[in-house]
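Run: sequence + 4-nitrophenyl beta-D-glucopyranoside -> complex structure.
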Amino acid sequence: MQSAISTVKHLANSLAAPHSFIDAHDDHIPLNSGNGRELKFPPDFVWGTATASYQVEGGCDAGGRGLSIWDTFSRERCVDNGDVACGHFFKYEEDVKLMQQLGFKNYRLSISWSRIQPTGRGPINAEGVAFYNDLINCLLAHGVEPLITLYHWDLPQALEDELGGWQNREIAPTFCDYARLCFELFGDRVKNWLTFNEPWCVCLLGYGTGEHAPGITCDDGSKVYMAAHNVLRAHAAAVDIYRREYKAQQGGVIGITLNCNWNEPVPDKDPAAAQRNADAAHRILMWSLGWFADPIWRGEYPPEMRQRCGDRLPAFTDEEKALLKGSSDFLGLNHYFSDFVKDSTKGEFVSHWGITSKGGYFGDMAATTEGHHTWSQTDMGWNVVPWGFKELLLWCQERYNPPGGIYITENGCAVPEPTKESSVKDCFRVAYLTSYIAAMHEAMEAGADVRGYFAWSFLDNFEWSLGYSKRFGIVHVDYDTLARTPKASAHWFARVTAHNAVHIRDGAKFTDAATRHCVAKAVAAAAAIAAAPFAMPSISAAASTRLAA
Ligand code: PNW
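>> structure
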């Protein structure tokens, strides 16, 4: 029987063009062959995969877990919810074994606060603690190093009800108590911590556009800025606790993960208009990354925000500023896509979930985004622009120069995968990941201090308000049976991590045309092989060895 790999190889060859820069599934060409270029990474480079508690665990009513804002929001307002998700709560051993078989040595996961403290403060749930103890021990026993996010969006519902969630200053000491518990309970074995995942999403989508839990909307942006202010206060105070009370004994590191797209100004022949677009692109960077990164690496909100938001942007006390500055041992960065940017006096912005907003946060930012006809898009409608990743990394290096380096804590893409057969032949994802990793390598050669990369996601999972319709996994999940099947991208990523290198064709150029051609080729190949007889090699020790060879 013809294997998927040889089918794709055949198709890839027949479609080959001078600009193509991947060997998507060319499993038979050793990485050091003369057919292309091997982009080597530093010997201590960290490769891993990532998930988040609410997106994969399921077992929402199991093991004494309390409700989170995502239970409430998704049950009441979304088409799907995380009640079952991937059933990772019950199947974690199988998942960890699969990581080991694929040779994935690092895993980013998050802790569900309401499993540890069902009402957010007070009583500890022993069953929840036991679950994370078992999971952490299982990871370590299988040679997988955990990186733990304390807060990946699933606030205990009781804290939203009683305090108003991130609107209330009291949430900061409450979060600190929870963080202290986690350091106390798991810090003897967990050496890598993240306080928050993507505060931009927490604050803007949760308290501005209402697209995410708790689904609050705010037209003038004041709640958005207040939520962010309290997230930053909570982050700095929790890091201070770790450093003062635990670091000496436990010897770990702690940081934060921020999301940022690249924003490229729309060129204009009129220098004044070009400058306005450049300023607008800079503002988007400030209103997404700078909003959080400036206080942490520079000690204060970006000057543009302070000028344009007025009183709606809360002010830090001198004490808070001092605690914030330097409060992350490294920069955790999640990156998915790029946009072109124009100045917008209208201040109208269409979010990536299609909600149009005026005024408030968007009015302050006064910038509008658009795609480009040469760009491909993922199933999220997000633009595939690997060179934008390189630009962003160099920009972060220049502005923040984070002493502990940059870790890419998420990068990946959703692909339309209507059937399992189409899903496991995910050439598009391999093309996307190859081009983004190669772009990251270029940024590193140009001076960006990138020290690690985590693919999003280990498993297909609950994509928040979009439910199970978007598949980001490198491992397929059958939502009827919860069976896991590694996709081609998982086998390919296993090879990248085993070789500490990604292989690209000779003469590879990261132009838009090259990206577009490469993605089109991958999509064509995927469509063509969808009907062909197919046998995916099962993941066995032998298969992992062959992939690593
Ligand atoms: C991240 N944007 O969310 C989250 O950390 C993950 O939980 C999620 O599954 C993944 O990315 C894919 O969506 C983002 O609009 C949400 O730029 C929105 C954006 C970026 C990241």
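>> summary
Confidence is low (pLDDT under 50) at residues 1-34, 528-549. Residues 2-411+422-508+516-548 form a domain with the TIM Barrel fold (CATH 3.20.20.80).
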